[in-house]
Design a protein that fits this description.
alpha/beta; binds zinc ion
Length: about 450
């Protein structure tokens, strides 16, 4: 019997499938076609309606010190983050109906007053109303602690764990540079807070006790609503973590628990051990690990030591296969290498900060490469943060959301127009990036 009819049937099914999905059977092209602007507009109007899961933000009023375990030392801000960015006026107009075209002293007062009135009218509705305005369904609140004014139904807590890396005399670490003089005391403060929470005045007698103390805080924070742990380690040390034996960490702990200056090597070895312990606990407790992987603020942030690729030995360690990793800020400016880490089934990239530091015209290109490689492993985050009373968490939410929606529409429009994907597939990818992929991690 001839196999011809069956082959014909296979071809017919293939043609039908392509027709339904809207992709021509031709090979993808390097250039977009003349339909690009119209495709962009169509996609943008659909993308504007997608409710967002903001995977990384620091919502807070400007006077709230619990917003971060760190503070910003004076440093040079990139162009778009500077206070004379005209987009900030557009943000104020869009969010509050700001009637002026600049932030002169008197004009800015209008804005400060407007926010104060809204806050006074209903402090708990303030940030929830903001999310509504921007189409954000849920936002992560990456903070030291949750305040009463954030509705836990809309804001999910991600707590900091770096302070467990600093139990000893930190004079030597602090003296390294002026930025560390800002950072390290804040880590000590958070550790003291955790000790108060555990009702202890002194560090436990041995490493065993210290690890139990850590686990106790992690468990309590999870019960209080914490859905993930966050490391900012790249601000304090290289992101390459060694793998010392427990006996070595035990000896260092015993030696310095109640005083004495550890050498840089000893401290780092101890931190390597504690980092791995925390990651192991993250797996046991089903708490995803959020980790800062990008440039950092300040004059002394070490870009090469903070390079996301330094984490590869830990990410590809089979002992942590049960740990979900969220690479905050997507490894930027190494995001093009970083996307290959997302080939690991448990590794996700978050684009926060990138869409604020880069303008949409360039962010589109980074996002497009991610979408073309692992579209199901990338998530949106705004990195909203209260820089000051004029550029607040509110305006940075606006900038992140508006930039990401437009850059996403542009990247997907190029992919559709170049024959890579159908428009239906593009919208599926948009939903995944803006909401579904991140939301699924916390079910
Ligand atoms: Zn952040």
């Amino acid at each position: 019997m001839s196999i011809q009819p069956r082959r014909w049937l296979v071809c017919a099914v293939a043609v039908f499938t392509l027709a339904v999905s809207g992709v021509s059977a031709a090979q993808a092209r390097p250039y977009a076609g003349p339909d690009l602007p119209a495709t962009y507009q169509r996609l943008l109007s659909e993308i504007d309606k997608i409710p967002i899961f903001d995977h990384h933000a620091h919502p807070a009023f400007p006077d709230d010190t619990d917003v971060d375990a760190m503070a910003a030392p004076p440093g040079s801000a990139p162009l778009r983050e500077r206070l004379d960015n005209p987009e900030l006026v557009a943000a104020a107009k869009a969010l509050w109906g700001y009637p002026y075209d600049d932030f002169s002293k008197e004009h800015a007062r209008w804005l400060v007053q407007k926010k104060a009135e809204l806050k006074k009218a209903d402090v708990t509705a303030y940030f929830s109303n903001l999310l509504d305005k921007l189409g954000i369904e849920t936002s992560i609140a990456n903070r030291v602690a949750m305040p009463d004014y954030l509705d836990p139904k809309r804001f999910r807590w991600v707590f900091f764990v770096d302070s467990f890396l600093f139990p000893f005399d930190n004079h030597q670490l602090t003296a390294r540079n002026p930025d560390q003089q800002v950072y390290i005391p804040l880590q000590e403060k958070v550790l003291r807070r955790y000790m108060q929470q555990a009702q202890i005045n002194l560090l436990p007698a041995d490493l065993n006790g210290y690890l139990s103390f850590i686990s106790r805080i992690l468990g309590e924070n999870q019960k209080k609503g914490g859905i993930a742990m966050k490391f900012e380690a790249a601000y304090f040390r290289p992101l390459r973590f060694g793998d010392p034996p427990r006996s070595q960490a035990e000896a260092i702990y015993r030696k310095y628990r109640s005083g004495g200056l550890p050498s840089a090597d000893e401290y780092r070895t101890f931190q390597d051990y504690i980092f791995r312990y925390l990651v192991g606990e993250a797996g046991r407790l089903h708490l995803p690990v959020h980790i800062h992987t990008a440039v950092g603020i300040g004059d002394y942030f070490n870009l090469s030591e903070g390079n996301i690729m330094n984490l590869e030995n830990v990410l590809r360690d089979p002992r942590y296969a049960n740990v979900t990793w969220v690479m905050i800020h997507g490894g930027y400016p190494y995001e093009r290498q970083a996307i290959w880490l997302a080939a690991m089934k448990n590794v996700y990239l978050d684009s926060s900060l990138m869409e604020i530091d880069l303008y949409p015209s360039e962010f589109k290109n980074s996002l497009k490469q991610w979408l073309e490689l692992f579209p199901d492993k990338i998530t949106f985050g705004s990195d909203s943060f209260p820089y000051n009373e004029v550029l607040g968490a509110e305006e940075s939410y606006w900038m992140g959301v508006r930039s990401a929606r437009s850059a996403l529409a542009a990247a997907l429009a190029e992919m559709v127009s170049a024959g890579e994907i159908s428009e239906a597939k593009a919208l599926e990818m948009a939903h995944a990036y803006l909401h579904d992929t991140a939301a699924r991690l916390y079910k």
